[in-house]
Design brief:
This protein is an alpha/beta fold. It is built from eleven helices and nine strands. The protein has helices spanning 20-30, 49-56, 66-76, 118-126, 141-148, 158-164, 198-201, 206-217, 224-227, 234-239, 253-265, and strands spanning 16-17, 37-41, 58-63, 81-86, 107-112, 132-140, 167-175, 180-181, 188-195. Bound molecules: S-adenosylmethionine.
């Protein structure tokens, strides 16, 4: 079967980019340089893949849909050196993706992500943040707004804190539904994520940090004193430089990091949290 004849699979979030202008803007934002290790998540029918291959000469893609693998390989060979990894991206170890590959160095990840699993993909990639130079992802605009939100705004929440603790988050531009086939029901946006050096971040225990943030936001309307009452007293919150009368949505990322480090050192641990 050819790429043109491919029938979109809703369950795999297949909304393919059909606007050359948007594709060009994304490639320009990525600005691939010779020798970089470029990896695309979810190439679909190649809307981004082939322009990236032409711009860069070499690309690794991760695609789950078996029907796309053969046609992608045939078409890709016309544009450059395409390596196809036929796997669920959530099972890919990004730290080892470069092994046996000519190009060395940290990954530059790109992708118009399947929106139904975009948050699990983000968190999976963050576990390998040390192997990644940067990421350019198309996501639901609403998710990008939450990722980039500042303390005190309505959209600032668990996702904002968890991502901003690991990365610098920069929304680049919005994309309307008409740029895709079939069009999604929501607006989209392209975001750039650049991992922060672990020494700059200073999270001592990533699991504890995730639990602390989840506990703080478990009841948005409650003050931290109340939300964290099962874990610690107000003096422990104050010791981290946070007003116990504040709500989680007012607390900066770095203050959550200090709070988690101090609670963890004191042997105080919030319960395991449900995934985001
Ligand atoms: N990049 C193409 C474009 O912009 O036209 C397609 C983007 S489409 C929104 C998402 C792509 O991710 C689809 O090709 C889909 O098959 C693939 N995909 C969905 N779930 C996946 C998974 N778990 N692992 C790898 N790829 C997946």
């Amino acid at each position: 079967m050819s790429l043109e004849a491919h029938r979109h699979k809703k369950q795999l979030g297949q909304h393919f980019l059909s606007s050359p202008g948007v594709v060009e803007k994304i490639v320009r934002a990525i600005d691939p340089k010779p020798g970089e290790f470029l990896v695309e998540i979810g190439p679909g029918a190649g809307a981004l893949t082939f322009p990236l291959l032409r711009a860069h000469g070499e690309l690794t893609v991760i695609e789950f849909d078996r029907d796309l693998i053969g046609p992608l390989a045939i078409e890709g060979a016309k544009h450059g050196r395409l390596t196809i990894v036929h796997r669920d991206v959530l099972q890919v170890d990004f730290g080892r993706l470069g092994q046996g590959h000519d190009v060395e160095g940290p990954l530059r990840l790109v992708g118009n992500l399947p929106y139904n699993i975009s948050t699990p993909i983000l968190f999976h990639v963050m576990e390998h943040a040390e192997a990644v130079k940067d990421m350019h992802f198309m996501l639901q605009k609403e998710v990008v707004d939450r990722m980039a939100a500042a303390p005190g705004s309505k959209t600032y929440g668990r996702l904002s804190v968890m991502l901003q603790a690991v990365c610098r988050v920069t929304p680049l531009f919005d994309v309307p539904p008409g740029a895709f086939t079939p069009p999604p029901k929501v607006d989209s946006a392209v975001v750039r994520l650049v991992p922060r050096p672990p020494a700059e971040v200073g999270v001592k225990d990533a699991r504890h940090f995730a639990r602390t943030v989840a506990a703080a936001f478990s009841q948005r309307r409650k003050t931290l004193r109340n939300a964290l009452a099962p874990v610690c007293g107000p003096e422990a919150i104050r010791a981290a430089g946070i007003d116990p009368g504040a709500r989680a949505e007012q607390v900066p990322v770095q203050a959550f990091i200090t709070l988690s480090n101090q609670l963890s050192e004191a042997g105080l641990s919030p319960p395991e949290a449900a995934p985001l």
